[in-house]
Amino acid sequence: MTQQPAPRAPRRGLDRTGPFDLGDKVQLADSKNRLHTITLKPGGQFHTHRGVLEHDQLIGAEDGVVVEDNRGTRYQALRPLYSDYMLSMPRGAAIIYPKDAAQILMWGDIFPGARVLEAGVGSGGLTTALLRAVGADGSVHSIERREDFAEVARENVETFFGAPHPSWDLSIGDFQDVAPALNPDGPAVDRVVLDMLAPWECVDAAAEVLVSGGVFLAYVATVTQLSRTAEALRDHGEFTEPHGWESFVRPWHLEGLAVRPEHRMNAHTGFLLTSRRTAHGARALTRVSRPAPGSRDEEELTDPANDGFGGSTSEWGPQDVGERGVAPRKLKRALRDIRQGRDR
What we know:
By secondary structure, the chain is an alpha/beta fold. The protein has helices at 82-88, 98-107, 125-134, 147-161, 175-182, 203-209, 223-236, 298-301, 328-341; strands spanning 25-29, 35-39, 45-48, 51-54, 66-68, 74-78, 115-119, 139-144, 168-172, 189-195, 210-220, 243-245, 252-255, 258-261, 271-276.
């Protein structure tokens, strides 16, 4: 007689608290902090070379409980945090790291009830953070040029929340074409968040859909992208002086008297740039400053060696910023891992 698979428990997503229940993901950490993530199933077992842990020991237990397998190996059981999920999610495109996602939520001023327009959805990591921040009364509309990236993002977001999110819409196409068509009656977006190759090409469309006082935020990988986007905002005339920065996170080793920085750290991942939309039709005040010698010299600005800085107009492709293509087999593997991981 062929054994039938165990029935799948209804999934309520990873974004919840309370005792462990069927279908929940649980992160097990041993005494050396080796991590294993399992999905609780009726009669399920977690096997290692050290022993077997029954899922029934966790079902109904409190988050944070310590359990033992049949050979006495102890595990701390905790529900995975969003940062755990973001770093471990199967991906096609690169993700925005937690340190940058946190900066985006703060300096992009993503508030409960906000209407956010996102472009460059990638693998869905930042989309998940935006949806958590806007809450039930807000909305996130994501635009992605590549349908294969969008499929991976959709699967990752729905895995995290346990179902399609009612506040999320996903469109396929170019930001410049899709964004203005979303709100034909006028500006109706509080925040625009861009993670793409050429955000300067989207400044006009962003200005069209942003409400007065709305925030424009771009995440870019290189200084040339940072410079070119800043100059595009200045040239538009209805954005405040752009502010750009990067962040570093340095973890520390904490053990008795051995308190020191870790040998490894997350250094540069990307640059963030923000600006505010002025009242529609109102020119932004021009910052009074003393420019650095040569920074606005026409001969220097047009020199081929400075292409990308100071608002150049040449066309760029992914190769110009060192962006590597994503092989179709990697995307297929990511989709397989997402779907299998829901029951693993």
